[in-house]
Amino acid sequence: MKRLAILARWCLGLVIFVLVLEVCARIDDVVSYGAPFWGRYNDEILFRRDSIGKWGKPGARYAKWQLNSLGYRGPELRPGSIRIIAMGASETFGLYEAPDQEYPRQLERDLNLWTGKETFQVVNVAFAGETLPTSILRVPEIVEEIHPSYALIYPDLSSYIWMSVKTETGTASGSRASPASQARISFDSRLAGRVGNVLKQALPSAIQNELRKVSMRREIASRHYVVLERLPEDRVEHFRQDLHKLIATLRAHGVEPVLVTHATVFSKPLSESDHVPLTTWRKIYPMLKEEGFLDMEQRMNDVIRQTATDEHVSLIDADREMPHGTKYFADMVHFTTVGAGAMASILSNGLEPLLDSQLQKAANGTVQALPTEAKRPSTGLPQQ
Amino acid sequence: MSSQALLYVIVLPVAWLLLWPLKSTRSRQALLLFISYALYASWGLKFLGLLICSSVLNYGLGISLRRKQSVARLWLCIVLNVALLGTFKYLPAIAGLLPHSSLSSSFANVALPAGISFWTFQALSYLFDVYREEELDPSLLEFLLYMAFWPTVLSGPICRLSSLLPQFREIFKPAAENIRHGFDRIFTGLFMTALGQLLAGGLHAGQGIDGIFDSSTKGLTGPDVWCLAIGYGFELFFNFAGYTHIVIGAAHLFGFRLDENFDRPYLSTTPSEFWTRWHMSLSFWIRDYLFLPLVMMRREAWWRSFVLVVSMVVFGLWHKGALLFILWGLYQGILLVLHRQWQQVQRRYEWQWPQTIMGPLSWIVTFCAVCLGWVFFRADSVTQAFTMLRATAYPNKYASHTLPASLFLLVAALALGYFGTIGGQRLLRKYSGGLTMAMEVRVALYSVAVYVGVFHLAQTQAFIYFQF
């Protein structure tokens, strides 16, 4: 009987321990982010759903992610500025950067530093998991709300892996989880996510990689995926068509598109440390072999370059200009704060000639002109 | 949390369960040694090899010294240990100063084995004790364990064999009191290290003590420098004393009582008192094995002052072979000498001021003087240290501040919180005979400490003394 009482007391102690941890996590959320103490608190509170799909909820806030009154990440619209929209997915929306350091925000600061005044506003209209087809459907609404002059298109390429995924028993529907929702910013138990983060820090990367491989093999087996060596050509073609459609739609609404090739953490040729993020990537898309991702990036970036030539669209080749490595990328494609700064510099350098001519034209009219010796922003890039 | 911390969290409970049924002291010692080596190996296999070599060498030197206690043999012991320490600790710094060559660059890149300063000083203390004819007769297994003992091998406390040997020879009997006390210390330490981390990082990114020290400190005003000096003093205290709490607590779970390293040092009212309360294991080591033997060589007052300064310079050099640490030791030595001079003046003129005035006054002077010294300890360069200290010397530099108000508030809140907690503890002890808590309340407090220490900051705790 006495042993039973001791055991019961230990169990009670354990329950108290876990409960207090959960309460602490909730208080932390309340104090740090103004989150509600009760109820679910995850990235879903940032979004609403309409006939097209996921869309930003005006004024929503989750952890470091804050949306403005129109439902876009970043500050309110500033009247009188030349607006550039940044279209894309989680890479553009920003996952790992410090608040206010995602590349659209840094780009805006770089451009305004270049002109010496608050000439430009870069509006981040991207969302985690956004695909090109949904972006095309959103264009009219975005243009009506923001009245942008330019649109930077930094598309998520890997969403095309999910299109008509083949299984051994037939064809599965296209959309499972997007990469962004795989790199989840949401937790059901407030404590569980934190435990996961701590373990991610503490477990040696070799062990984490092996665990990923095990989980990947299980998923392939349970869903009967046919594993592809490389992305089928029809999906690349689909991407080309979507890109043309998006450009046409933007132009039809009076917005000048600027295409940006997709950058990754991987160096060319691959370094020893590149195998970990490559496995991480494959864990999200188990149906494509590791080498297939690099091949996919190369082929689809070629499509972006070709489309830019065909459509006479300005191209910024981030794939070639962006430095690689974990200093710049927190995982395979998402930027660190430093990486977002480097990306902003590349975009800023690419946009300046385009914007310069626009400003010169405007100077002849009523809008402000560029200062003759504009101060260039520091690139934040290593000297080549 | 680092990989190594996770390894400790996994290995130690298993080790505890394995030790429990062991009745033989030798098998217990062997298991403890195996665990110690396994955990130490996680910091680098080469380092483990070095630790074993040093342990075996010092064991042999101890036997030789016990057979014939000669000054020559003692010097040989000292030279060999200092040479080993110097090769890894000071040679890279010296090589960095030499003109570039393949030899200097290969020496400059020598990695510092984890805890080498701590276990080398433990070895030396054993040899000094043998030379002084203390009754120490460890077996090789016991000596290897003494050198590699997992709670102390990385960052102390620097233990004496005379205090650990009897404990190594006891049978492990888990006691509820030991476990309770051990957990109390571990969770207190966890909480303290989190506070240290908070000071280092600040309330807003880049606005913590470390961020400001690492960026440009030009243009700092008097209040800014005081805020940084006091803030760093508390950061270092919370970090190192917190680590020591964890180590002592973890050892307690296994039935070992380690020497204390801190005794509320910021309550000291004189610099001499401070050095009996701060990093006590090193401070007492320096006193017993360096200051006392040297000071007894001559009777003159100037010699005593000189030895005091030399001892403190060695104290500084123990941390790192860098000019800043020499200056820090010099500064602390001069403070101790000045304090002695002041005591002599007081005695000569029979000044006896009321304790109600002298107590707070001497506490303020000591606290400020010690904190100002931390500028040498933390600064990134000698120029930065003197630029900062210069700002405190001119009254016109006190008109404004440039550091964010949040940092001033954080430092003030943590300093007041620390003193308030000590005051509260004293009152509780006085009026209720100490605080007794139900197990459930204790568990809840542990949980809060774990949250604050592990989950809230969600970043790897960097223990400052691991670099020494």
- Reading the helices and strands of chain B in chain order gives HHHHHHHHHHHHHHHHHHHH
Principal-axis shape of chain B: globular
**Residues in β-strands, percent of chain A:** 5-15%
Greatest interface and its participating residue counts: A-B, 23 and 22 residues
The low-pLDDT segments of chain A are 173-187, 366-384
Helix/sheet category of chain B: mainly alpha
Number of strands of chain A: 11
Number of strands of chain B: 0
Instruction: Report the helical percentage of chain B.
Output: over 70%
DSSP strand content of chain B: under 5%
Terminal residue distance of chain A = 75 Å
SSE blueprint and pairings:
The complex is a heterodimer of chains A (384) and B (468).
Chain A: H1 2-33, E1 47-49, E2 54-56, E3 61-62, E4 65-66, E5 82-88, H2 90-93, H3 103-115, E6 120-124, H4 132-146, E7 150-154, E8 166-167, E9 170-171, H5 179-182, H6 190-202, H7 205-223, H8 233-252, E10 256-260, H9 275-284, H10 290-311, E11 314-316, H11 318-321, H12 337-364
Parallel strand pairs in A: 5-6, 5-7, 7-10, 10-11
Antiparallel strand pairs in A: 1-2, 3-4, 8-9
Chain B: H1 3-19, H2 25-41, H3 45-67, H4 71-89, H5 91-97, H6 102-108, H7 116-131, H8 140-148, H9 161-168, H10 176-201, H11 209-214, H12 222-253, H13 271-274, H14 280-295, H15 301-319, H16 323-348, H17 355-378, H18 382-393, H19 405-432, H20 439-456
Helix pairs in contact in B: 1-2, 2-8, 3-4, 3-7, 3-8, 4-7, 5-6, 10-12, 10-20, 12-17, 12-18, 12-19, 14-15, 15-16, 16-17, 17-18
